[in-house]
Write the C-alpha cells for this entry.
Amino acid sequence: MTRTLPPNSQPTAAPDALIIPLETRVPGRATTSLPLRREGPAKLTGVAKYADDLVFPGAWYGATIRSTEPHATLVGVDLAEAFDWSQVVVVTAADIPGDNVVSLIRDDQPILVPIGGEIRHQAEALCLVASADRETLRAAKRHLSVRTERLPAVFDPLESTEEFSHLEVGQGDLDVGFAEAELVIEGTYRVGHQEQLYIENQAMIALPHPDGGVTVHGSCQCPYYIHRALKRSLQLTDEQAVVVQAETGGGFGGKEEYPSMIALHAALLARKLGKPVRMIYERHEDLSATTKRHPAVVTHRTGVMRDGRLVAQEIDVVMDGGAYCTLTPVVLSRGVLHAGGPYRCPNVRIRGRAMATNTPPNGAFRGFGAPQTEFAAETQVNRIAEALGMSPLELRRLWAYREGDTTPTGQVLRESVAAPEVLEAAAEASDFVRHTEQTGRARAARASDARSASGIGLAMGWHGAGFTGSGEVHIAGVASVELTDMGVVRVLTAQTEMGQGTKTIFPQLVAEELGLEPEEVEVAPQDTSIVPDSGPTVASRTAMVVGGLIIKAARRLRAQVEAVTDRPFPDSYQLFARDHGGMRVDERFEPYPNVQFDDATYTGDAYPAFGWACAVARVDVDLDTGEVIVRDVVSADDAGRIIHPVLAEGQVEGGTLQAIGYATIEEIKLVDGRYLNDRLATYLIPTSLDAPRIEAILVEKPFSGAPHGAKGIGELPMDVGAPAVVAAIHDATGVWIHDLPATPERILAALTGAPTPAAPGVSVRAPDRGGA
Amino acid sequence: MPVEPHVTSPRTLSEAYALLAQQPHRPVAGGTDLLVQITGELGDPPDRVLDIWHLDELRGIAVDGDALVLGALTTYTEMRRSPLVAEFLPALSEAAATIGAAQIQNRGTIGGNAANASPAGDTLPLLIACDAELVLGSERGERSVTAGEFWPEYRRTALAADELLLRIRFPMVGDRQVRFRKVGTRRAQAISKVVMALAWRGDDGTAPWRDVRLALGSVAATPIRAGATEAVLDGASPDQSTADRAASTLAGELNPIDDVRSSADYRRAVAARVLHRLIREAGGW
Amino acid sequence: MSFRFFVNGDPVEVEVPGMRRLLDVLREDLALTGTKEGCGEGECGACSVLLDGAVVDACLVPICQVDGTSIRTVEGLGAENKLNDLQSAFLETGGAQCGICTPGMLMAAEAFLASGGPSDEDSIREAIAGNLCRCTGYRKIVEAIAQAAEQRRAADPHPA
C-alpha cells in the first residue's frame, strides 16, 4: 500500500516558477490515468530485443583470455602449433591503433595488457579471440597459453601504499567538540563487495564499417561513455563511432563503465576480422571480471552530551578501489559527503582515501559510496542511542537536518529538506514505538534457552541528487525535443531505459508540457548518431536533471509553434509541421540558481538537492543458527515531486530489496585476489521467499530548481535498508553486527562469543603461493 | 552454447544395460546436475551420455512389502505430492521441498541426487538415517547396497561402470521417527551449509531411543553418519542432559571445512545446535 | 538427430545434437528469443518454459528429452496488442521493470495459475521462488499474479 503525503512547506524560491499546489495539474503529475510502461508490452511478450537476441548474419563469437594471477608481468602469449589458427582471429594490445586505455577518470586501465606489461588483477583481459563457431572458439582457447612472472600482491586496502584519491571535509573544531562531549563513542564498520547482478549479463556486438568505423549494439547505461572510448582507442571521428543501446536487462551501475571495455574488445575483433563480432558474457565471466561495489572500512568517533546533543563527529573512510581507478574518486567523494548522515553537528571532520589492491576494479553500483558510509553512520547512531538510553527515533528527531541547517561542506540546506517528514512517516506507518516496546518486553522476558527472537530497527539517510559538486556543469548535457517533418513530437536524449522508466516518464513530462497525451510523444532510440549527449544514466539524475531539460525544451517548442500558429499547440503542431517543416529545440544544462561548489576546497553546495529516506525493518532471528528472516520493511522516501507513483514505488521496493541482500546474504569471498562467489549458485541474491513485504511511502518535498520539482529516487532506498536490518537484529538479539553482510556466521559468532569471522572484502592469500 | 556430447536415449532398461555393457556412459535423468556441469565447464564433459529419462521401469512410488520404494526417476515434485510419502516418510517430502524451487523440483530426481554424490546432496542424509537400500542393476543382474555404503569417497558411488541406479527402498519401521533439517543460505534455491537427518525408534517422546541414526551432509567429503553421537543417543531418553552430551559429542566428532558457502566453525556449531533443538523438540521440553 | 515436439501448439521438427539445451533450440534453431538466458545453471529461472505444463529451466533440459512433448513459451501468451490477463496485470501493477526476468516469471506464474491451488501471497511467492528478479523487490509481481488469479477465478469459478 502506498500513501503520498502532501508537502509540509512550499519551496522558498521558484526561479523557474512552476511549483504550484498539489491538486493543480503540473508537469509530471498525471491527474488522470498514468501512462503504462512504454516498452512494457514488448517486454511482456518476448518481443523486446536485448543484445543477445539481435541477429547479425555472419557474426563471429568473441571471447576474452583473462589472467589467473592477481599481480604478474605478462611475458608472452603462445599459440600452440597443433591448432589451425586460420579459423580464428586473435587480437592483442599490439592491435590497438589508439591509446590502450579505457577512457574514464585516470588513464590507468588498459584495454588489453600488453606483452611485457603489468597484470594487476585476476580476470584481467590479456587478449581476445573470435571464431565463426563456438566449438572452434573453445578449442582455440585451449590452445592459447600465457606466460607470466608473478609479482607480490596487495589485498588489504589498509596495507596498500598506492592511493587513488583522498579528501577531507569538515566544519567547526573537533578538539572543542570532543572537549565538550560528555560521552564519546567509537566504532569500526566494514563492508564487503556487492555485485549488481542485473539478470541480463553484459553483452556487446560490434559491426565494422568499410571506412574503419564501427557500430556497437549492446547493453549499457551510458552510450556516450562508449562513444568516447571507441573514438580515442580506435582513432575514430564522432561519426565513425556509433553506439546503439539494445534493450537493457538491468544495470544498477554495473553497466555504467564496464560496457566500454567490452565494446572496445568487440570492436577490435570486428575491425581485424571485417565481420560482426558478438561478445556476450556468460554469468561466470560477468561475475568474475566486472565491477562490484567498493568494500570499505569506516571508523567513527562521536561526541555527544547526556541530553543527546551531537557535538563532534570524526569519521575516517577507507575504500578499496581494486586494481584500477575506474570511478573510484567520485565514489569516495560521494561516500565521504554522506558519511556523517543527515544530522546537524557543529564540529565535524570526515577524511576519506581510496586505495589500490590487486583485486578486480570496483565501480559504480546504486548508491555509489553512500550505502557503505551510511550503513556505518546509522549503526553508529543506533549504538549511541543505546549508550544514551534514548530511543533511536527520539535521537534522530533531535539531530535530523531541517531547513536552514549547514552540512559539513558549508552547504546551507535552503529548501526541500524532508528528513523530519520521512522519519515520522516511516515511524508511524511501521508503528515503530509500539513494536519497540513489544520487542523490548519480549527480550527482557526471554528465557536463556529461547530459540527465536524478533526485532525492529530504524535507519534514515540522505542522498544527493545528480552529480556531485560541479559534475553537471562539466557534463553540460544537452537534451532535445523535436517536432518532425511528419508532425510527430519526439524526445531526444541519451538517457537509457534499463527498467527504471525513462521511456515512460519522458513522454509523460513532455506531453504534459505540450498538452498532448503521453502516447503522442515518441522517444528517439539511444543511438549516438541520433540523440545528443545528455550525460550518463547514473546518479539519480535522469528524472531530475534531464527531465528538467526536456521540460524546458518542450516549453520553448510550444512557444515557438504557438507564436507562428497563434493557436494552442495541441491543435496546431501538426499543421505547423506540414506548412513549415520540423523544428528541434536543444536545451543545454545551466547551473541551478544559487548552487555553487568549489572543487579545490570541497566546500559549497555538494548537490543541488538531497533526497531523504527512512526505513524500518522487522526481523526474526533463529537463535540456534543465526538465520535472519526480514519480515517487512517500511521505506519512506522523499524524491521531491513524484512523476509516476507506480514507477517510483518500483524504485523504492527494488532498491530496498537490494539493500536487504547487502545486509544479509550478498557476500564475495576472495582467495588470491579471485572471487570465489563467481556463479549464481554461490553469489546469492534474495528470492521471492527471502524478500520482505515492502511498503513504500512517497513523501513529496519538491525542489524548486527543477521545473517539475523532482529529485532523484533511484539510489535513495539503497542507503537505508542495511542499517535498519542490522538495528533490528540488535533489537532481537542484543548483539551489534559491525560487518556486512550480517550473515548467520557473524551473528552466531556474536551470540556465542566465538571469534568474529574474517573481515568482508579482503582476499585470503593462496595457500601455496607466497605473494608479498 | 555449451559442448554437446553424444547421447543415446534407450526406451527399455535392457537396451540401456546393453549400451552400458559396451561402453561407459554418463547417465542423465532430469539434467539438473549434468547440464550445470557441462555448461559451466566444471571438469571435462562426458564423452557419451545415456538419457534414462524414458525408462519407465525407473519410475513410480509404491509400497512393496515392508518398504516404501521410489523409482530412481522420482522427481522432487512427485515426492512432495505423493500420499504414500506423506504417510510413511513425511521427512522426505519435507526434504524435497527445500531443494531448488519449482523448476528444479519438476526435473531433479532422487536417483540423480544419489548418483551425483555431492556431499551437499540434500536427500542423502535421509537415505542414510532411514537405512535405505539402493538397488542397482546391470546385464549382470540386480544387487542392493545400503545407503551407508553407497558413497565411499568424495563424489564417488558404489555404482560399477555398467550399472544403473534403479530404485531406492526405505524399510518401513513402525515406531521409527525421522527428522530433517537443512540450514541453507537462503529460503529457496539454496545449497546447504549443513543438512541433517535424525532417526530413532521409541514408543513415545520421552522413552529411551533405540536404533538411532544421525546422518549429515555438507560437513565432510561425503554424507556421513555421526557414530559417536549416535552412541550417546542410543538407549538415552531425549532429555536436556542427553541433548547437551549429544550436541557436544557431535561438535567434537565433526571436522568440516571452510568453503565459499560457510565456515568450519559455523558448520560445527550449528550442527550441534540443530541436533540439540531436534532432541528438545522430540522430548517436548 | 531429429526431434519432434510442439511449441506453443505448433508442431516442430529439429535436426540437432540430442544434448543441445532446449534453451538453445528455442533461441537459436527456432529463433524464439523471448526465452532468456541468465545463468545457464538453473539458478535464475529467466529461461523458464512449460514442458507438458510443468515449469522447467530450459537451460537444464536436453532436447532428447523434449521429443514428443509440448512446450509453451512467452511467445505463446498474448501478443503485444492483445496481452493476456496475466501480462496485462504485470503491465498495470508495474511487475515488469527491466524485463529480462519477465518471460520466465510469466511462465512460472502461468504454471501456478493452472495448478488451481490457493493463490494467497505465500503460495505465489513459493511458485516464483525459482525466478530471480533484481528490479522489483517482487512485490508488484506478486500483486500481478494475485490479480490474474482473481480474474481467472471470477471468469471460471469451477475450473475442470
User: Anything to note?
Assistant: The mean pLDDT of chain A is 94. Residues 542-565 of chain A form the longest helix (24 residues). Chain A touches chain B at residues 134-135, 138, 284, 451, 624-627, 629, 665, 669, 676-677, 679, 681-682, 684, 686-690, 744-745, 748-749, 752, 754-755, 757 (CB under 8 Å).
